[in-house]
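Forwarding these from the shared drive since the link keeps breaking.
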Amino acid sequence: MPRKRLTLKDKQKKKQQTSFVGRTEQLTAFQENLNLSAESDAFINIFNIYGQGGVGKTTLLRKYEDSCGRKDVLTAYTDEGVKDVVDFMASVASELEKKGHPLKKFNERYKVYRQKKQELEADPKAPEGLAVFMESSIVKKSVLGSESGFVGLIMDMVYTNRLSKYEGKWEWANFVAKKIGNKDEVQLVLEPIEVLTPIWLEGLVDIAEDQRVCLLIDTYEMVSTFLDEWLYKVIDNRYADFDANILLTIAGRHPLDENRWSAYAEFCAAFPVDPFTEEEANTFLDQRKITAEPVRAAIKKLSGNVPVLMATLAKASPDKVEDLDDVSHLAVDRFLKWIEDPNKRVAALYGAVPQELNIDVLKQVLPEDTAAEAFDWLQSMPFVQKRAKQWAYHPVVREQMLKYLRLRSLEDWVELQQKLYAYYQAKQSALNIEQQKQYKNENWQQFALRMLYHGFCGQPEAYLPTALNAFVAALDEKQSFALEVARTLRDAEVDTELAQERQWGEAMENALEEYDKEQYRKLERLMKRLLDAGHLNEAQRPLAYSWQANCLRLSGEYERAIELFSKSIGIRKDYKEAIFYRGLLNLHFVKYEAALSDFNRAIELDQEYGWALANRGETYRQLGKYEAALSDFNRLIELDQEYDWALVIR
């Protein structure tokens, strides 16, 4: 019988596993739990490991995964690479399929969801703002959450004059319904979480009936904003029954929220992961055959016994250490000095600059003929990991590398950032995508984010206006991409050590997260701050005023909203959406002439602006001008026979 092929990578991984140090309590508790029946009162369903960056949470999670493998427990690992709940479910399904356990029903529906969503976004006839509409939870609740159904909701809207609640989004809902046709598929596109979760869970439970399943969720601090509430609902049977034979292992910088998870506290084990104890640190160094006491002392002092920094320093395997008086407080300073090969030293330092690591990227910061060899060497380093579906430095080590590089040579820092900016700019240009299709292309978006990061890192002050305008433009096109812009700017501000009071990214991120929870104040204040800063160009200022106005409108501050919509229109005379919304608010205040003026102007700008026609018709109806109202409703039906609500009102 031929032997199973063993690669050098396999040997390296095996050696790393056998040299695992410490974490005995966390590992033993998990392994003993695997021996228990799910019916046992002592069985733990949720393992939560938490601690600062670099203490080995990912390594421990991988040890859990190995333990599961030895017990024939099926596993699926995810990290910050997932972008939302649906992406998380798809990632788990993909992992399970690789191991011979496909979630067939989920995969089929998910494929339909992706296909229909792409068709809608690519349709040149799609109403403006469709992508934002499809991402908005409040719209989904409004469109699909009415107890009285579609027609009943229209009647409620018309006869109670609650137009502001439903906004202008019936035009978009009608477009989705007409484009897709199938009622189930319409619901799938508008409510993917509600539709897909029970199907996903059904598949997971089917597997768990015959084989235990363990979901391993890493870097939870990066995904908890969208995953935590949903995950709790999943185990709380809000979508379907959650099988007790399914394990959750969650690793992040913070413990799970006690207020949310307290109901399941007795089935949850929370383990803090701290830097190595003195005994563990000594064992770690013993395993790596580092015996010189001055070297051991230097490694422990510089690393603070943080495992990833200890591993980084130990990898250089020094025989002696110089006097510590001239050593920087950064562990990477000593690590770099211990690397004798100058090419490897440069590769370790410059390789930290890009956010992703591959040979093509390394060619931008290193001599081309050394990039492949450098990449292979970096992959063998303990601080280089596959994270979010790409190779990258461990954040703790990367942070120190970047800090060291900035201290060593600001000119080198700027030059490297400019090279990477030019690289991604060239890749984006090579896509040759029309402007109206750019926000629908994932590659274009990713290159735009890389350009934003390196452009800002290279020249923070000069690039700030570009970054702020990019955020507002993205927000008006695709809210999920605007969130990515905010997070990228946040990362760039942190990596350039920008003072907290001068930062924007975190405030943008928080405002969008609150907006998605139907809390509008933070985004309204952010728009005001953006406008007051004076960096927005003529194209983005009216958008910012309109978003600020819309937040005020949704908060019930209609008069201030009208003022800001007017400011937006004052800058951009043909901004039909702002004109329409001002008309909507004028109608709310029973200012019929002003409302008609706005609706007339919006329709003049777009003869097929269905929602403006509908509200002009409703204004005429309230004025008793029934022939004019009937004319507008007839025009709507001419435009589209499937305007059910226009038929009802007529």
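-- next protein --
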Amino acid sequence: LMVLDENGIPVASSNSWDNSYEICQFVATTTQHYTIRVSRYRFDAGTSTYLSVAWARKEDVSPCSRAIDISPGDTITQGTYKGAMFWDDYNISSWTETGREIVFRLDVPYSGAEIQAHIFNNPYDVDIFILNDCDNNSAVAYGNSFATYPDAPAGTYYLVVDGYHGAISTFDITVSLVGEPNLTHYQPAAWPYPVFPRDTSDTGPYYGPLPPELPSDDTTYLNMMGTNNGSAPTDTIFRHQFYIDGVPTWWGAWAANNINPGELFIHANVPVMIKGGRHTIGDSIDVDNVIAESDESDNYYEHQFVWKPIEIQKEVPYLSTRPPDYGSGIYPNCDGYKFRRSGMYAYGVGIAPTTDDEDYDLRLYTDYSGSESGFSVLADGSYYAGPNVDFVVAAYSGTLDSIYPAVTRYLSGHDNYYIDATDSQDRLFVPPVMLSDQNLPPHRLLNIYEVQLSDTTEYYFHLTNSSGNANLGFGLFGPDTGYYGRGDFLVCGNSNGPGGDESFVYTPSISGWYVLAVYKNSSEDEALDAVYGIQIYSGFLCGDANSDGNVNYIDLTYLANFLFGGGPAPMPYMSGDVNGDCTLSISDLTYFANYLFAGGPAPNCCPTVSTEKETSGSKEK
């Protein structure tokens, strides 16, 4: 094929080998008539064929103006014979593309996907180019039949099908956006965190301040926001789930294909009940793991917040459901309380589970100030293993008037617990002390006394379990200042089991006010009624049961009346233990009578009583 100007000079030609068509182009520099000449190169004798000749002015308007819209997943049948001759080459290819172009316009709504363009069913040599602008110098990918552009930014792209060396062909084209979604939490500017609680139900995407105080045992509203920061939309329904201290509480769902890359989703104002104290609010997106994501490790978010503590009243046991697990935060999750003592008195706080397969721990904190601060400054704690009663006592000096007890589940526990608090008001004594009809009714866990002791003086302490079958213990703390957990006894008596009496001896090295705690031992005793007496004294005459300074038959009668007639106990108690076995029984009467009337050995009261700290049941973390 040749084109000649009016002077017979060739201005364009095409003589490709063994081809069924030829195409050439030229620039007409002047207005004139041109001649189109078709010359035979090879033609078989005796045969004939048809020739068709066409000519057209090359486009001077971008073919993008007539671009065909195409969407991911579409398949379109087209032909370049319908296109324009506008571009002959592209910036990223050395191929000569002198054929006509068909242009498709593709809108990519999100960043990160891979554009995949594919042409097929084309009998002649056409090629595919991906342009990020309507310009042949903006090509970003090309290929004979397949072109890919990874990690494509969001925007408008042009897919150009062009003919190699002037080829014209029909074809099918399809395009895909290939990528994976990634669901994670998102914090909008108006929110303090991606997941957080509020005290009112008016949170929205543009409003959500954290309140200064969160209500305890009242409705709290949970809120979360998430996004798809991946390179593809979600392809099926997925759920999210709220957690309180690791326990699932609520969830939501979104429709399939509804969360495109960059799109936000919100679930707000979900009502729940949360107890006072420090608790962890968490949320898991795609909790059922039905979405294949580019990163499966960023679906969970959690943060700790502090709810207003529940105020407990003196000697009014408070029943609560099981406390939270310790958690993984810097500070443990906990049920939080507040107790205020009556004045400058020693005080104590105790907890007991209601069944014997629980293990709950008690901590005393000194701080609470709002929804993000509190239950973080530890005064002391009690961490006895299993269902033992845990308690902490505080001396009258060097301790706060208001304290914040906290209860946490250790390794096990599903049942309720009681928390009980008291102080030493009306229970301050100077030895000798003889108290009767002291009471720990059901669910009360401990009583606190203050005793003034002098240094280097040996004191005898005796606890008489007057009625009931509770396993009582008592112990001495101090002196004067600080906080003490159950395991911080100076000395204690807790070895004789349910209904048993307890004793110990202590010689202080420092004079001062010491704290004496009488307590129930474990969950088995929590619901029992206990009546007891206390004796505290220094020095006594063995056998002088009535404390008249003499040892004679009157003391024998006094001791018999106590043991069998309901009379008063010896004062001090161990003055009646004449046989030295550290208990009062009929054996003491026999021993005493033998001494008084038959020349038997002299009274020899209990030479040693417990002076060791309680260790049974303690645990360390």
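The longest strand covers residues 218-228. The longest helix spans residues 586-598.

- D.
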